[in-house]
Amino acid sequence: MNLDDFSDLIERPDSGVRRDAEERRERLAVPTGSLGRLDELAEWLGAAQASVPAKAVEKPRVILFAGDHGVAELGVSARPAGAAHALVREVLQGRSPVSILARSLRVPVRIVDAGVDCDPQLLPEDVVRHRIRRGSGRIDIEDALTVEEAEAALRLGMAIADQEADSGTDLAVLGDLSVGGTTVAATLVAALCGTDASVVTGRGGEVIDDLTWMRKCAAIRDALRRARPVLGDQVELLAAVGGADFAAMTGFLLQCAVRRTPVILDGVVSAACALVAQRAAFRAPDWWLAGQLSGEPGQVKALDRMALNPLLDHGVTVGEGTGALLALPLVRAAAALAAELPERGVEELGVKTDPDAASEAAASSR
User: Fold this and answer.
1) Looking at CB atoms within 10 Å, which of 98, 110, 174, 343 has the fewest?
2) Among residues 229, 235, 239, 182, which one has the least CA distance to residue 205?
3) Which CATH class is domain 60-328?
4) DSSP letters of 205-236?
């Protein structure tokens, strides 16, 4: 598999439509600039939809990719290694923040088990049936996946994107359910941005103490030594220091761009996968929004590299797509305002009319 092929498959959102949206915005009754980033959001969404004005987002869906990471065995996370299945069950039972928000916003949630380390019987069949393997290898000393497993996970993500597009999903909210995932994400970001471990190492979804942070830093440093020799090949990079869920999310993001499905990114995990995808197809980030700042320095680094400016900064660190889902009402509001705000009248636009011509037109209409 050569991910560079996506460069030829992915086109940018329609720039002509975006220009039309900008021109229409100048004619609206509300002063230009008074709606702040909502104007920018509406123009981005309209370009993605090839519609002026932007259409309402009617069928969004939360997509969560789940997986365990062997590096969690080093004590780099506040959660115990192999606990991703508990996160999955909390979402399924409606007790997690993302499931509560999704219920209130009437947005369905789909969970894809790409690499959870548990007996398949512990989770529903529709969640586990896509699993690539149980957990991922300890990236500080071994590969997370074989190259064949990385390719299978990428294809899984692409297939999920196709299923969503075919079913009418018009915006995807992307998140993860992982243990050890922020350590893997920081490794990928550091490798792709050429930075040291300490620059990208954060405190995780559940804040860790200083000793745990130092263990996490050391694990990322060791994993970086293994990542740098394979930086030229995204598939080998995901196999070496990624994971099944990371590869699946990368494939999902790339295929969503091919299918012209806009995506809201959540935290550092989705940002790291987006960075890998950008390395393969430089136009792909035009189809993504950064939902929120998660407090992870690796996320800041990745978003800066992709020139994505987060919509929200509320200190939400819980992960699981929660921050990205919080941004969805803003996108919907932008679309509604663009579609429903009236345009200014002729006089307000400063267009002069010829009184004689107006009289003749009125006479001819009688």
Assistant:
1) 343
2) 182
3) alpha beta
4) TTT--HHHHHHHHHHHHHHHHHHGGGTT-HHH
Going from N- to C-terminal start, the domains of the chain cover 13-54+338-365, 60-328
Instruction: Round to whole Å and give the CA distance between 11 and 245.
Output: 25
Residue 91 zone, left/alpha/beta (φ > 0; ψ -120 to 50; rest): alpha
Tens digits of residue pLDDT in 51-67: 988 899 999 999 999 99
CATH assignment, 13-54+338-365: 1.10.1610.10
Question: Would residue 320 show up in a list of annotated catalytic residues for this protein?
Answer: yes
Q: Which spans in 95-243 are helix H?
A: 97-105, 125-128, 147-166, 181-193, 197-200, 210-227, 234-241
- Indicate the residue type of 140: D
The per-residue pLDDT for 205 is: 60
Catalytic residue among 73, 236, 320, 360: 320
* Residues found in the chain: 366
Structure confidence at residue 183 (pLDDT): 94
